[in-house]
Amino acid sequence: MPTRHHLRPALIWALAHGLLVVWFFRRTLSAAAADMLPALRAPLWAGFLIEGLFLGLLAFLATLPLLLLGRRYAVAAPLLVALVTAFFFVDSMVFDALGFHINGLVLTVAMQPGGGLAETGLPKGEVAFLLAALSAAVAVDAWLGVQVLRRFASSKRTWSWALSILLLWTAERTASAGLIFVGGPPAETAATLMPLQPLVRMNKQLAALTGRDAVKELSLGGLPQVATPLGSVDPGQVTFARKPDVVFLLIESLPATFLTDEVMPNLTALSRESTVFERHYSAASATQFSLYSILFGLDPQRRDAVIGAGRTPMLFPALKNNGYGLHLLAASSVDWMDLKETVFHDVTDGLETDFRGDGNERDEAMLARATEILRAAPKDEPLFLFLFFAGTHFNYTYPPRSAVFEPAWDGAGTLTATRKPGLEILNRAKNSAREVDTKVAEFLATYRAHREGEPLLIVTGDHGEEFNEQGRLGHATDVNAAQIHVPMIFKDEALSAGRIDVPTGHVDLLPTLFSLLGDEHDPALYSDGTPMQHAPADRYVLAMVGWKRKFALVGKDLKISFMEGQTSPRGVRVTDPFDRPLPDGEARFAAEAPRMLRRLRGQAQVREAHR
């Protein structure tokens, strides 16, 4: 039978697999549709189905060179379609976990020596199992495809179908421009969620045709970037009136709800002797953006522009110039995402990250190294010790002594963890937090045994975490309270113990530390934040996802969540700080919009606080 008779069933087989790709991305697509205006959701889903058919068409077109194999095309084509589909399946898993498709960064992490994949919570054994399972699925899929091509071989024309799909997809891309025009940034994000979907904008043409502007309204065009006129402070001019040891404990994926007697009894007891900022928010739900704001003291959306301009944090040279010995230990990897070459660029000689094992084992190795540093550090030299704990990172590791909350997920099957019961995942995360709490208490006892006096102690999380409460697991996907509300403990003789109930954020950490050490520079000269102990009660704290331009402004009683470019009542979610709807939300948003915009456009709030 001529090979061309296999083209029509090959096309149909590939199109069916394209629709299967839509099913792979169903969670992501459903979340995107939920962000849209209700009237736009049905056309959005229609577009997703057309995009799936287009992916199937691309897979079919990729098989055409195999026609050179003659009759063996009936075997080779289904195999290629199966391989392409397996790739899209892996891509959907990557997108669910990280918020972007497979790219150079993903491949770099996967190939990183020393366990880059382990840092993502994927044990090598499970990766091997996934590869074996995918290989088996590809084999079965290819075999079924061969049967379909041979059973339904037809001489009917194929190219009219292929052309129809191509024209339908072209119409869908054009229609997506219309959705972006009326739906704004959420529609723009949704239009490029599926793989290989080029973004099409026609805002100017549609504005001229309709006589109205594209949806943007209260635009975030004022979001500060590197060119925003900031003053500058030479680190050599930063003078500390007092120089206690500074111990900064950063804990991975730690939501504020874990700071309780049941989960973290030692830190909770310590917090009663400390200053606790109850409404503290991470700058981002993604680690690298969060760390940027902590160390630079700048809002997270500045990151790419500031780092791209070659700037590094003033924190480390300021500490060095004041005689501090710097030691930064990270059990949670900072090797990837360029953190070593960006936020830690000036302290590579004092940065140690090459700890091995799972999160709990890396924490143990990090603390053993920290103990060596305490023993060797000169008593007359102030010490800045930064410890980044990894045990609370997915998949939440701990030894038997901390297996307190049951029933708990056993940590196996991480590739399908999103289908595990939320309570079991939550209990495992609580157990890992309890273990880190125990390690912190043991380390602080070790510190007191080797150093005189008490350090200026800082304890917080890089971001929070979700545990399937809302159908999502992990972080870096949203700006809800679960992902950005984190504990914030300062223990220092310059602060009175107690609980402070005003909004604060990671952007405030640098000016708070400098203030407590006695530096008298106006924080507005070098930071977007303010000393937390002086933060006004009516301020708003800015947070973002990081990978995608989704933001939140969080005040004491009001929170708005929005995509960049859209902050109108139609395009934002107005809630209280804990994401609960407000019956008068739109009216309160309208009343507070001017203050929010001032916060978005720079440092007016900071300057007002220091007048």
Please write out the topology.
Layout: H1 7-24, H2 26-34, H3 38-63, H4 73-98, H5 104-111, H6 116-119, H7 124-151, H8 159-183, H9 185-190, H10 203-210, E1 246-251, H11 265-271, E2 275-281, H12 287-296, H13 303-308, H14 315-321, E3 325-330, E4 351-352, H15 359-376, E5 383-389, H16 422-450, E6 456-461, E7 466-467, E8 473-474, H17 481-484, E9 488-491, E10 498-505, H18 509-517, E11 541-544, E12 550-554, E13 559-563, E14 573-575, H19 585-600, H20 604-609
Parallel strand pairs: 1-5, 1-6, 2-10, 3-4, 3-5
Antiparallel strand pairs: 2-9, 6-9, 7-8, 11-12, 12-13, 13-14
Verbal overview:
There is one protein chain. With 611 residues, the protein is α/β, with parallel strands linked by helices. It folds into two domains: 3-210, no CATH class; 238-533, Alkaline Phosphatase, subunit A. Helix content is 44%, strand content 11%. The longest helix has 29 residues, at 422-450. It starts with 6 loop residues before the first helix and ends with a helix. Residues 217-231 and 603-611 have low confidence and may be disordered.
